[in-house]
Amino acid sequence: MKKYLLYIFVAVLFACNNENSNAVKQEVENSNKVLTANDIIDKSIEVSGGDNFKRSSLKFEFRDTYYQALRKNHEFLLVRLTVNNKDSIFDMLSNVGYERYNNEAFVKLDDSIAKKYEASVNSVHYFSVLPYGLNDNAVNKTLLGNENIKGKDYYKIKVTFNAEGGGEDYEDVFIYWVDKSEFKVDYLAYSYHEEHGIGLRFREAYNERYVNSLRFVDYNNYKPEDNTMSLENLGKAFEDNQLKLLSKIELENLEVQLINNQ
């Protein structure tokens, strides 16, 4: 009987050793894996809240305007509420499209004006939950390499958009600097079309906080003094103090509720 129990113990011990060995081997293999842009963004989304964004109700204020976002699986409703005297203007963007209401009355808008309002609403909500959203079908990601900013090492990732599904501003180009150790987005930059050419912005994240498991940050919003500077060089320009602070992007009175998907 003792001999039989000894055989069982040895067999279990051998299995455990194999399992531990395989786990260590897998960990070593993962640590040596060359990460792609998709891998890096996946990790960044995960540490920022992951799938909980897909079942969330968010409320916040930005520049004295009220915003609310409801996301459930692949459905979403993004709202902006502007109070003008006694009127409440609701801009609502969902899977169905964009609509505007004045109090409870539907407002018919020309397509050009509607697209402008839609882009404005989407922009605030888009920036509020980054990097969530960077795995949408219309998003293209390219790893440009590594860059050191303020003594920290970052993955540098370029993001472009397809015309189909990329929204009104699909020609905008973004760069994200993702911390190589924590996989959090500390900086981002983007180029956009404006009346007299291409505009450039660089944002520095600060005031990180987690609200009900979701990560939020505020931003210092910069622009280059030199309009001929390239988007790819904005990180170095920030390092060299060549950017001008324009504004602060601050989300106030944040509330988060997680929704049961059942």
From TrEMBL:
Pfam families the UniProt entry points to: DUF6503
Record-linked InterPro entries: DUF6503
Protein name as annotated: Deoxyribose-phosphate aldolase
